[in-house]
Design brief:
Number of strands of chain C: 0
Oligomer: heterotrimer
Order of helices and strands of chain C: HHHHHHH
Structural class of chain B: mainly alpha
Chains: A mainly alpha (about 100), B mainly alpha (about 650), C mainly alpha (about 190)
Distance between the termini of chain C: 53 Å
Shape of chain B: globular
Strand order of the largest sheet of chain B: 1-2
Number of helices of chain B: 28
CATH class of one domain in chain C: Mainly Alpha
Structural class of chain C: mainly alpha
Strand content of chain B: under 5%
Strand content of chain C: under 5%
Radius of gyration of chain C: 24 Å
Number of domains of chain B: 2
Largest sheet of chain C: none
Distance between the termini of chain B: 73 Å
Chain lengths: ~100, ~650, ~190
């Protein structure tokens, strides 16, 4: 069977589910960040697959992916800064302990 | 339309501006506040006089300003207007004149009060409200200003709010007049519900085609409001207590202006009233009863202001009686060759003319009593005495006021009171004669108690430790001006006198299209003057030899002559006690039942809702854990549910999204 | 056929790597697996004729973002964190939900008739097209994203540099004289063990 849109989408959805599970179950903030990267990439894959199989003559999917990567970079920078400061304040990265925004 | 008509809206607006400015900005500058208030009311007075002159020269009735306030078409259409007709212009003159003189008087009287700024602010607000009331062209606007004057009355009676009796009197005045206002408000609602308009003229046009019960209920409810405001029996009980306020307030609000609002209202709606003769008969008898009832009580009172208050009640009763007598024939009937309409207009003329003259001499009496109280530091006439030689201006102007009130020619009260009595005879029938007798008796009592007051308070010798001296010029000047008005104001009521002076009569001014003059019969005038003189004579015999030993009310020579009756009079026929019983035994029980219902049923259901909400909140509380991941889980669950629902219910939509 | 083979290979690797990312107890190894997973996706991008994106993926994702995360891990994590509980109380509920969502979306994806009748070849000058698109049709989002990146940069620096804040749990000094509770002593012990 020819590898088509269905295959890529299926893979994308599977990765999305895995990433979501990771975000939901890991206790460490850093692990959640890693899982979020998985989520981003599953979307990238879907975007590129749609672009390739449905509108091969255009590059909209590519542009989207570039934007997503850019935003992922920005998010990683800010999130990691927050992680640093949280660690400094709480001596822990366990997200369940972070129930208060004060200090 | 003349320029001054166009500017008429400024007449109430100026005191309003004064109130706003003084309340917001000049509270801490007492003298400045007083002068701002005075300046505003003097300007209003000037404009009123110019408007009156235009009206006198035939500028006619006009609606000079109409603001659509709530323009909701058929649902509700509320306009605020300035309506100028002879009646409202007459009231403008009365209100601005008395208000101006009271303002000036207060400059002296309230000079050393801490709350002077507050006092003058409230006076401004009151002047605005009263002027707004008389310029109303519709029931609703009138009701709004009606409530505003009630509020001002409350504020000013309670001016000495740290004094319990003053605070209680303010509350009493407010709640008793409110009982009457309920009727007025029902009339307002009926006006919109059944006539579809608030406008007096439009209501009057529709009046012929209304249902029987409505034709009776509408004027009756209006009269109920007027009863509260104008202190008609049995809603009169608040007025004597209202004397707890400063004396200028008593002069302005509780003698000359606010209390006559009820008279004005009935006079304004007199043609509507005349459509229901039964109501008018009721009005006439309530008025007549109040007149004689209050006059008898005044005979045995000892507080100078209370005597004047009961006198005011009595005179208000007179005015109401005049309006009632005029209307009780009914528009479709004739009596002694007069049509009902003519008689109603004659009643309006007589009632409002008495209002006009009474405003001046009663304000004079109150201001004069204030001057005496100021000098003697007491309200009790038995603790006064001998000021005749010390306070010449005050006492002589007071005497002018007394003569005017007693109805001695040629003072103002004589002409207006006489017109009412003559009208009663003119109407004839058994009711006319009965009311004539009532009026005559009340006139006797009036003359008696006023001269009792004068002899006891002014004659004799000054009590020890009292050093009365004449009041400052800001207080005596208004007295003199009002004294002059009390002498001459009555002359315009009589056709011969007016012709001699070359001016229109009051009747011709009030109803230019109406060829009748005010009624005057020399025989009736002689009888009423004779009765008044008799009253003075009795008072003279009893009190002229004012003994310095009469130092408390127990020494009243009348006490031994009347015996037990005197105690009844002293206790004001126990009407206050009757009301207290009604309030305690009936009203409070009903209130308690209502309160129980409110607390347990109404509040209970609200509490139940609150309780359910709280329980749900507690139930939902764990969801707000602050744990990020459970939030995400819930978001994802929501996404799942939405997608699943869409997929199950309308699968096409997901395909359509792609297309 | 080679395409299919490559696809299945990299797809399997990507799934395995991402599972490892979310399940591995050692966060450092998790990050390493993430790099591997990203590399697999880069390969899949090549299969999708998106060579430029694949290169960007390797350069930026693996070369920059993952390295950044590794730095953060090294700065914050302790070795013995590995022995702590790694998963929270949702560890049973969340996978079930994820599986449900997976099944649902897959059902929908299969249900839709995608119009993939004929696959035309991609344009040869795809890089030029991307550049043109970024600076013409997408110029506004492009600008917004640039500003966002700048803001994120400054913001991240600002947040990370707030040194004067007092930590909620103060460091226990060596003498332990200020230690006023068992908690702090316990923390102290932990530090020493570390």
């Amino acid at each position: 069977m020819e590898i088509g849109l269905y295959h890529y989408l299926t893979l994308s959805v599977i990765l999305f589910a895995i990433g979501m599970t990771g975000v939901l179950i890991r206790r460490s903030v850093l692990s959640m960040l890693l899982s979020i990267e998985i989520l981003f990439n599953s979307i990238n894959l879907a975007a590129l697959a749609f672009n390739r199989f449905l509108y091969p003559a255009t590059v909209t999917g590519h542009v989207f992916v570039i934007f997503i990567i850019t935003i992922a970079a920005a998010e990683a920078a800010v999130a990691l800064a927050i992680v640093m400061i949280v660690y400094k304040n709480f001596r822990s990265l366990e997200v369940e302990g972070l129930t208060s925004l004060k200090r | 339309m003349s320029t001054y008509y166009e500017l008429a809206w400024l007449i109430p607006a100026l005191p309003l501006f004064s109130f706003i400015i003084t309340v917001l900005f000049t509270r801490n500058y007492k003298t400045l506040t007083a002068w701002i208030a005075c300046a505003a009311v003097i300007a209003s007075f000037y404009l009123s006089v110019r408007v009156m002159l235009d009206m006198y020269n035939g500028a006619g009735t006009a609606q000079t300003l109409t603001i659509e306030w709530i323009p909701l078409g058929k649902a509700l259409e509320v306009t605020i207007g300035v309506y100028l007709d002879p009646l409202s212009v007459m009231m403008l003159i009365v209100v601005t004149t008395v208000s101006m003189l009271v303002h000036i008087y207060s400059l002296g009287y309230m000079a050393h009060e801490d709350g002077k700024a507050r006092f003058f602010s409230f006076l401004s607000l009151f002047t605005f409200s009263m002027l707004g009331l008389v310029l109303s062209d519709n029931v609703l606007q009138m009701f709004i200003f009606w409530e505003l004057v009630g509020l001002c009355s409350y504020l000013l009676i309670g001016y000495y709010y740290d004094k319990k009796s003053a605070a209680d009197a303010a509350k009493k005045a407010f709640s008793v007049t409110r009982a009457g206002d309920l009727g007025f408000f029902m009339a307002v609602v009926i006006a919109w519900g059944y006539f579809g308009t608030f406008n007096f003229a439009e209501i009057q046009q529709q009046y012929g085609q209304t249902a029987e019960w409505l034709a009776r209920a509408f004027p009756f409810l209006i009269f109920f409001g007027a009863m509260g405001k104008s202190g008609q029996f049995p809603l009169h009980i608040w007025l004597p207590d209202a004397m707890e306020g400063p004396t200028p307030v008593s002069a302005l609000i509780h003698a000359a202006t606010m209390v006559v609002a009820g008279i004005f209202l009935v006079a304004r709606a007199v043609m509507i009233f005349a459509g229901s003769p039964d109501t008018m008969l009721f009005v006439a008898y309530i008025g007549g009863f109040t007149a004689i009832f209050a006059a008898t009580i005044a005979v045995a009172q000892h507080d100078i202001k209370r005597i004047l208050a009961f006198s005011t009640l009595s005179q208000l009763g007179y005015m109401m009686m005049a309006l009632g007598i005029g209307g009780m024939v009914g528009v479709d009937n004739f009596s002694h060759g007069h049509s009902g309409t003519d008689l109603a207009l004659m009643g309006q003329t007589a009632g409002t003319f008495h209002l006009f003259t009474h405003a001046f001499f009663k304000a004079l009496l109150f201001l004069g009593s204030g001057s005496v109280i100021h000098a003697m530091h007491t309200n009790n006439i038995w603790e006064m005495g001998g000021v005749k030689s010390k306070m010449k201006i005050t006492v002589w102007t007071f005497l002018i006021g007394t003569l005017a009130l007693a109805g001695i020619p040629p003072f103002a009260g004589f002409w207006s009171k006489d017109e009412i009595l003559a009208l009663a005879m003119e109407v004839g029938s058994i009711h006319g004669y009965v009311l004539f007798g009532v009026g005559l008796t009340a006139a006797f009592f009036t003359a008696f108690y006023m001269f009792r007051l004068c002899f006891v308070a002014f004659w004799g010798e000054v009590p020890e430790k009292k050093h009365p001296h004449e009041s400052p010029v800001s207080m005596t000047l208004p007295l003199v001006l009002l004294g002059i008005l009390s002498v001459i104001a009555g002359l315009i009521g009589n056709a011969d006198m007016a012709n001699a002076l070359g001016i229109k009569t009051y009747a011709a001014f009030l109803n230019p299209s109406w060829e009748h003059e005010g009624v005057f019969h020399i025989s009736i005038a002689a009888i009423s003057a004779g009765v008044a003189l008799l009253g003075i004579l009795v008072a003279y015999v009893m009190y002229a030899k004012r003994s310095p030993e009469w130092t408390t009310e127990m020494h009243d020579p009348l006490r031994s002559k009347l015996g037990q009756l005197y105690v009844h009079l002293e206790n004001k026929w126990y009407i206050d006690e009757v009301w207290r019983w009604i309030v305690n035994q009936i009203l409070f029980r009903v209130s308690a039942a209502c309160a129980w219902f409110d607390r347990n049923i109404v509040d209970g259901s609200v509490d139940l809702v609150a309780f359910i909400t709280t329980r749900i909140g507690i139930l939902m509380q764990p969801a707000q854990s602050g744990r990020l991941q459970s939030y995400i889980l819930i978001v994802m669950l929501g996404l799942f549910i939405i997608l699943a629902t869409l997929y199950v219910a309308i699968p096409e939509i997901l395909v359509a999204m792609y297309r | 056929m080679a395409h299919a083979l490559m696809f299945y290979l990299f797809a399997a690797l990507a799934i395995a790597a991402s599972l490892a990312v979310i399940l591995h107890r050692n966060i450092f190894k998790s990050a390493t697996f993430l790099a591997g997973m990203l590399f697999c996706l880069a390969a899949l991008f090549v299969l999708l004729d998106a060579e430029f994106i694949a290169v960007v993926q390797v350069l930026i994702y693996i070369g920059a973002i993952t390295i950044l995360i590794v730095f953060a891990i090294m700065l914050t994590t302790k070795i013995n964190d590995e022995h702590k509980e790694q998963f929270n109380s949702q560890k049973f509920l969340a996978p079930i939900l994820a599986l449900g969502l997976l099944g649902l979306i897959l059902t929908i994806v299969v249900k839709i008739q995608w119009t993939t009748a004929e696959i035309s070849p991609v344009p040869s000058d795809i890089l030029g097209l991307i550049g043109t698109a970024l600076l013409s049709d997408f110029i506004f989002p492009f600008d917004v994203v640039s500003i966002l990146l700048l803001v994120a940069l400054i913001g991240a620096t600002y947040i990370a540099k707030q040194e004067d804040r007092k930590p909620l749990v103060t460091e226990v000094d060596e003498t332990g004289e200020h230690g006023d509770g068992k908690v702090k002593h316990a923390l102290h012990a932990e530090e020493v063990e570390h």
